[in-house]
Amino acid sequence: MHEPQRDKPLAGLTTLELGGSADHYVCATTDAEVLDAVAWADANAHPLTVLGGGSNSIVPDDGVRGLVLHMGTMGREVRTEGDTVWLRVAAGEPWPALVDWTVAQGWAGLECLAGIPGQVGATPIQNVGAYGQDVAETIVRVGCLDRSTKQRVELEAPDCGFQYRDSWFKQNPRRYVVLDVDFELRRGGPPSRRYAELVKATSEDATLQEVRDAVVGLRRRKSMVLDPEDPNRRSAGSFFTNPIVDPQVAEAVVEKARALGCGDVPQWVHGSQVKLAAGWLIEKAGFPRGTRAGAIGSSSKHGLALVHHGGGTTAELLAFARSVQDAVFEAFAVTLEREPRLLGQL
User: HEC states along the chain?
Assistant: First the structure.
């Protein structure tokens, strides 16, 4: 491993383009360099922060203490048996490119996750999902560096604790560094068309490519793909997760919405609970799309995305987010949880 860089600016490594510098920074391009970086941080009693594509990350204004390990590992391995395709992908591989490649190969399983920025290694941590498909549906195991033993371990999918936008990795961020992810895909399999908006946008006999293109088109119309020409481009995508609540809470939200004259409340059955639409709650609580407070605001295309318009600070972003959370709680008694990770905060 090269000697870590001192005082590395991090804003340019994130899609929000906010925040300060890392005390120490290294970009690892091999698993051996990942191990060296972890060992260096431990030997020098520095906290370790892993950075991927920066699309789900918030950098504090005063930077990140310790060592920031930026994942730059690349590589794909393919094994097939009949119509089953097993794919092992290094953590640093760009996620949108991987999805596009699997679709071009005719391998079903990831098509609804097209256009999501970031790296492969982050997908099991967040259990990335969109348009009715979660990455946990195709992950069979995750290869990790166990920070306590400095050894490689492989966790089978049932041991990963996958839930809605959650996992064991997310709940225990100090234990493992994700090195690679194994997916099981289906050669010639049908595309997933479970999400109502996607069903409307595609035909029953849509191909994998057509579903992928429809997903990217839907995301683009919501400013949810990386586009340097998009005025909403400085964003971490969905800033809050959709709340999962008990049925009684959902009923109370419906009553509150009726009293406010908000109309029908979008909701979906989620096991024994109910999923509510965070974007709808935000807009009905008084933050319509395009709301702005100085350099920070909500996206003009999607109420769930918060946008940095340039020249702002992380403190301003978090203050705006808190005002959104407070307004939703006051209107509907529902607590919104932040989705992007504040680096250096465990």
Answer: CCCCEEEEECHHHCCCCCCCEEEEEEEECCHHHHHHHHHHHHHCCCCEEEECCCCCEECCCCCEEEEEEEECCCCEEEEEECCEEEEEEECCCEHHHHHHHHHHHCEECCHHHCCCCCEHHHHHHHCCEECCEEHHHCEEEEEEEECCCCEEEEEEHHHHCCECCECHHHHCCCCEEEEEEEEEEEECCCCCCCCHHHHHHCCCCCCHHHHHHHHHHHHHHCCCCCCCCCCCCCEEEECECCCEECHHHHHHHHHHHHHHCCCCCCEEEECCEEEECHHHHHHHCCCCCCCEECCEEECCCCCCEEEECCCCCHHHHHHHHHHHHHHHHHHHCCCCCECCEECCCC
